[in-house]
Amino acid sequence: MNLLLIDDQISVVRGIEKGIRFQELKIDQVYTANSAAQAREILLHNEISIMLCDIEMPEENGLQLNQWVMENMPGIVRILLTSHADFAYAKESLRLGCFDYIVQPAPYDEIADCIRRAVHKLEAEQRKKKLYDYGMIYEKYKPEMSDRIVMNLYSDNQENVKQSLLALEQMGYDLRKQSPIRILIVDIFSYSKATQSVLFDISIRYSLIGSLRAGKIEEPIEALITMNRFRQFVILLFCNDESLLSCTSENYQRFYDTLNDSLNTDIACYVGEYSVFSGLRAELGRIHEFINNNVSKRPGLYMTEENHFSQESLDISENRKRWQRLLKENQLEKVRDSVLSYLDFIVSVNKTNFSGLCELHQQLTQMFFNCAYDNQIDIMDLFTDDYGYNDYMDAFKDVESLRFMVCFITKALQSGGACALAKDDIQKAKMYILDHISNNLSVKEVAEYVHLSPEYFTKLFKKETGQNIKTYIMQQKVEVAKDLLDHSEIPVSLVALELGYSNFSHFTQMFKKFENMTPSEYRKKKPEA
Description:
Blueprint: E1 2-6, H1 10-19, E2 29-33, H2 36-45, E3 50-54, H3 62-72, E4 77-82, H4 87-95, E5 100-103, H5 108-133, H6 137-140, H7 147-151, H8 158-170, E6 180-188, H9 189-192, H10 201-214, E7 222-227, E8 233-238, H11 249-263, E9 267-271, E10 275-276, H12 280-292, E11 300-303, H13 317-328, H14 332-348, H15 354-374, H16 389-393, H17 399-415, H18 418-435, H19 443-449, H20 454-465, H21 469-487, H22 492-498, H23 504-515, H24 519-524
Parallel strand pairs: 1-2, 1-3, 3-4, 4-5, 9-11
Antiparallel strand pairs: 6-8, 6-9, 6-10, 7-8
Helix pairs in contact: 10-11, 13-14, 13-15, 14-17, 15-17, 17-18, 21-23
């Protein structure tokens, strides 16, 4: 195999050449380049298997070169080097399908280990192609296990389970009814909750595999990874000796810590008890019951044989009386604040659980719907296309959903229905924008003021005004700027500062976007008094 090393700093190239024993990594020849243009020439005239490329280069950078290689030479395994731990770079490297991303300065043994893994990947792909050529079709899919085959292992239909076990056997997995197993369920909150995530399925799976390896949860232990209907990743660990039983909580903690560092987002990992494959469904049901009790969505590593969550039932009789009295007095904001404070309290003292949240949701619903009836409000008029009746009725599943439900329904009741509520929220938001026009306003800040999520508020604002909220904020700043330019002699630079723009050129560009002229040009056109 041949490797191409690209970096505009010659000292870096020479250092890597001397610091790494490439022959021990099965690299036959190392080509070097100091620019993207030079690298293209080498790529076009030589057979390159692995490309180690710097990102920050003059003229054409490493990401642009990787885009070209991905489109024209997709078989090359690409590794990126950078001196800046920038998430935008990491995200772009995932989009480009890069094998790994190394932040410099990195020890030579770390770079060597990355190259070693790239070599293993290429060797595995070569073996895979050879097996395919011999007709061993199942082996082709061994590195990328079909979700359907693995998901059928959890089926209550024994014929489906039997067929999956047969397919796995043909792929080389020796999973038997009495094989020791342990189930891990990983909930990556930004992935499971969002419709559009910054994380990618395949990159998460690679991170899971790498983190298992970091936790020393490795051969002869096998890991089958799939995704359930809740967009959580389910890992079935199994073996046919005592290896799995020897894994301690420290192994799983190392797995969790590595995964957390790799993805850099809130994660909850639930580790089931030891079992055998014939008891898979019962164990899975027990873990899901445990997960349901994490209603506050706290990140962390949870060994499910331990008691992490409160088993107490919640007594809200006194709170309920107070809330009912406030509802009769039409003190809906006080009801909202009181319920939210109560939720904060039970979370802070760890008295939250699934059954308790269900009971609280049920009693709140009864109170709010009685309030609607007493005020002759049709229940269905309280809901919108973006937050419907079904969304409301499903809000018992976690604390965050229940908080949003309480904020929504109290506002809807106060305004006499969702339509009036929407208009009221938009008017409040507009007033808030005008009152804080000198600030560097964000959509999140305005949305929080009217107690809505940024996503929902953005849709609502667009629906009610026909205008994008960010555009509206900029437009209001321009109107205030025009007024200041027309009726004062304040320097343009101070006008920019007055409107929250510390970058004068940014202010000028924004103003020109709306008025087709710069602020200075606008002031010159002002008629003489």
